[in-house]
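Protein chain data
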Amino acid sequence: MPLTPEQLRKLPKAELHVHLDGCLRPATMIDLARAAKVDLPARDPDSLRRWMLVDDARDLEDYLRRFEVTIALLQTPEAIERVAYEMVEDAQADGLRYLEVRYCPTLSSRQGLTVEAAVQAEWRGLQRGTRDFGVKTGIINCALRQHDPAESLDLARRSVALRDHGVVGFDIAGGEAGRPAAQHAEAFRIAKAGLLGITVHAGEAAGPESVAQALFDCGADRIGHGTRLGEDPALEAYVRDRRIPIEINLTSNVQTRAVPSASAHPLRGYLARGLAVSLNSDSWLMSGTTCSHEYWLAQTELGATTQDLHKMMMNSFVGAFLPWPEKQELVKSVLPELMHGLV
């Protein structure tokens, strides 16, 4: 029998692919909008939650437009710190023990906030959350494909300098089709030389050639989405054989039209062929999901077995951008609980 949503929620999990600007609480949005004098498309939390849910996007670009609403609210250190703190609280409620939060801090510069101030505020919120709720956290800074490569290079340098403020990784997001990550290769070289983990959004709105660029031009340690990787069996085998983690996002892939339905997602084939896949939510607000709900979908829509769930949960912990001793301790701490919960 499939595990219930409540059982899945209680199991220890790690989330490696979720965006800060996609996880604001509607009630918090209303508070922040009032303070910032920003108009919102709805005035009460329930209506705002429904409006922010992206169930009408034509493609990835359309899906991303909703983020303009939340980015407008993340222009002060106080707002960023509050949202980061609340993310950790919500993560703990969903059974997460480790959380990597990704965001492009330059998006918070519209009123003069620096990248450094934005990241420091995010880290303060995450650290307070860790102290209060016991969830380990890390920051992944995102460059954006639509930005000039010089901006990505600048962000990479700043991200390396912010390693002591929780930055564990570097990524590139934004509209993928027609915007090759290879144009930002120098930024990734700087980030990798600065000892940051590298994850790249690839293979969602573009084909396996995008995944190849992530690997060979950008030095990716993990692949975000990788939905179309299976179109190139040789490249898929390369990723499998080198145990390169794939950050799967079922709900958002349906919303961006990368797949027609959750049941049509290539995750089933990836599991059968032995890829190191993990399940992630991408955006709690815009996708109306949680990490545990993604596991529920894997069970109910794709026939994931208990063994599959165990593999994906362990892959999430093993794929984390954590120092190896910390990762070993984390895996050791959750393994008995995970095994017991899956029996």
